[in-house]
């Protein structure tokens, strides 16, 4: 498939030694260096890689929105620089935020894009009907795009790009913040288009399970193409290196914390009822980490998945990105305290006519990691902001450490740490200045303050960057800095709103390692996420949908509900999809 | 070929409809287009006036006589003055410091005596010079009232007054010298600058920020169509604002419209094109609403306000500043507006200024098109 | 508690100074505006073009004309010889005014049987300039009459006017405008700094971050107000400095009286700015709000046009405009040398506006703390 000797004009997309640089602040970033790749007609190709790998830049170059510094890029033989007008006739492009006019209705957005693509009135109605049927938006044509849920926006964005029946479809992160049901629908639309219209699709994604559905995967890192091949090829690379481990005494979370970052172990993540371990060599048991605990460990090999290869390949290039794990902090199992620290009692929240949160009730105990899961617009952030006292509830009561933070004295807020969705930091201030500000905000002074700041710089690997402006930092570093700012004053309760949104798998691993350590040392963590697989890290969780609790419980309990003979080991995502479908058929 | 043109039309129609829908749904652009003109016109039409009337005058009459009374009565009769009386200079000075009066007229104790002796006694007039403009106007009014009194005095006494030369003045086009007749037409240029440049600069930058432009320019649309798609709706909005301003000027503020309405609309079109072109250029360069707003206020609104001849006479500015005003489109339109409203269709003024506007419009569009490739950089 | 406010202050300053855009807002526009206004905005007549239509052509009439053309206010750019030339000269804005002397000018002047007539035709499109030019011409004429009467031993007018202008003897309008700019720019900069400060943090999400820290609303408010106060006072000082040393304005009053006014004025403007800011959700709304406040505040302040000329109702409206009071203070101190006692009537309204708006801002800020 990668055979470049094929005639060029049959290639849907061809890049030849493409280089592209950007200037961010004072730094010059090599977004793409010497990238060559080819995509054959009617294939689905996924671009994967950490933040700043150059995925978006590559898609924009292909769409003719940027011009390469050197090298050539062409779509069906048409040069993306010189023949950009013919390229635009051939492609459909959906940018990261779907490119919709939020103050136009669904129908108006479609009409606009139909006009822009020159779709004649005769064809138009037929295509609208098809697309509306396919996306399930037919009953929402009058609704403003801004009032749609994340999944609906994504489908509308896709519908707009499909109107012209493009030969090549370019999708930039089409599934960020979208719930699993919508993601599945997106894929069925894409597969349908490839099958019936012979469309070629190139998409970038942060979800590796999604990449696994592609014909080919291109792995990018820091502007370099590491490899391009079929998912099967990548999985074969990892053959015999993926294991599932269980410990008789330690919980999965502790086992995972213990194993990750050990020499010989590339990756350790919780998956279902065991810890998935990827070893550096074919023989896992030789690694020293297992020596001490091997007697109580059950290990079995498992079939590799794309994420294993992804992490393994990246770890070769970024050995330093491994989190420093402070093993002394990992205490042996202690039963969870039953002291309730967060209490939510029949809470409603209305925004005008729209009910964002419906009669929500739950409690969180001390030392728990409690997850609020759901897609964008499910009501997670609203709940979260009410808990932090940033938003008053319309009805009901919220208590955090026994007080309502909205009414409590300022010093009650010193007991919590808060990290918002956007990693809100003062972007004009340097890393150190941000730390200085937040340490003063929490009343830390003199030696104590100095000590806390040193701890934060060390612990979060920010020493090198301490004088850089925080606005120029890569996203993963911003996340670390935001967490450092929220933790310096040693809060009892930590509120983390979408801490892993948009962050690549490596940084996500780092983040969960830290969070596990905190929980182990007695900090209560309330976390929201739209990654269903991250549910495994939580002690207990609720999954929200349309402001309601879809289900609550421990990860095992939730998965238990959907376990059947056909699906003996459901993932959290399977659980979500099943539960949503069950609920919809009930309605 | 025909099909090709049809598709072009379709794309343009789509863009225009989209923009109109967005304007309709966004109260802030409607407010800038229709509420702001009304507020500004009311403020300027009613609030601002350079015509000093009922100027508070402080009198210090050290010895009251029939002559002093007849003199002060000459002022009391005039609508320009409002008399108040003080016992001595100190009291009057104090009143001036507290801004109770703008000028002091002092008649000394020996005024009547010297008058009879024909010694031509001096009448001391002290004007608060802080506001130089008002001070000058007051001084003119005082001179007028004084010479009226002299004539009256001469008549009463039957003496001949030596007045070698007298003036006979006519103020053309605005015989009542009403400042609203002068300010309101000029204001239309300021309002259209706001609608044209500020609004377009912001909306284009908004599309950059929200990422909608990214999706749009990856379609077969050409940049010319994108710009035209912005231009047509805001042109309509701007002309709407202009029509509203003209209607208010004529029917609410009774400003005479001596020239042709259609010439106003035609030159207004030219001016609006310059303003829109400038707005588009700003937003293409700025790509961010905050910066675009800042630049638009600094390079379009303030110059239109100060350097266009709208309030301040260009002829009296230093040569360098005068040279600079040639770069400001509002200058040409203000000249046309004031002429067409108050004088009539004076082709020499209209054609010259319209030619300048046309040139600027072409220049801005050429630059906007050049600066707006179908790229993200 | 104060160490926390200091931390807020440092953060606020760093955010303003390190951000290219906000640095530009603070430095760029004020300097541009100072010069554009300072030089461009003038009501003084300087070399205004006039046309002479002299049908008499005697020595006396030429002497008379010379008095006009020699004045710095006017410059003769056109000589008219026929009646038909009059209309186009004015219509086409070639000249502002035409001085017309009839064929019998010198005869009437010498015989003295009837007054000689000098006809002045003025373009009234710009009503203000027309009036000022007319006044200039009238005073030139009055001087001519007086001199002529003395030379030819005619009766002097029974009484003479001795007009003097206090505080600004040469009636330079630049003194008036530049002193006004001190208030104007201080207003604009202070509003921009404060009106966008909360909105910017809201947009970037840092405001939530701030609200979950142990800062009290009062501390946050002080943290937002103090930078505005400091920047406003520095800005005012810079323009005061430029006014004195570049534009050569007299500074006859006491700096203390001036700075008391600057301080109170900035205080009241901060209140308005923070009120706008606590209402605005986005920076754009903040900018629009700032604009909607600044424009009427300037127009109705007496900056360019006297408040006394406004209708009664509008005059009452100006009582809530802080710039109105500050302009009296600046001009009073700069040009008249008014002492603080006299200015007391201007100080207290500023203080009241400041207290009311700041409490309003604090109230809205608490209400909108979500």
Explain the overall architecture.
- The complex is a heterotrimer of chains A (587), B (377) and C (370).
- With 587 residues, chain A is an alpha/beta fold.
- Chain A is 33% helix and 26% strand.
- Chain A is built from 18 helices and 23 strands.
- In chain A, the strands form five sheets. A six-stranded mixed beta sheet of chain A has the order 6-7-8-3-9-10, sandwiched between helices. A six-stranded mixed beta sheet of chain A has the order 19-20-21-17-22-23, with helices on both faces. In chain A, strands 2-1-4-5 form a four-stranded antiparallel beta sheet, covered by helices on one side.
- In chain A, a hairpin with a 2-residue loop joins strand 9 and strand 10.
- The two termini of chain A are 47 Å apart.
- Chain B contains 14 helices and five strands.
- In chain B, helix 3 links the parallel strand 1 and strand 2.
- The two termini of chain B are 32 Å apart.
- Chain C is of the alpha/beta class and 370 residues long.
- Chain C is built from 15 helices and five strands.
- In chain C, strands 2-1-3-4 form a four-stranded mixed beta sheet.
- In chain C, strand 1, helix 3 and strand 2 form a beta-alpha-beta unit.
- At the B-C interface, helix 2, strand 4, helix 6, strand 5 and helix 7 of B face helix 2, helix 4, strand 4, helix 6 and strand 5 of C.
- Strand 4 of chain B pairs parallel with strand 5 of chain C, so a sheet runs across the interface.
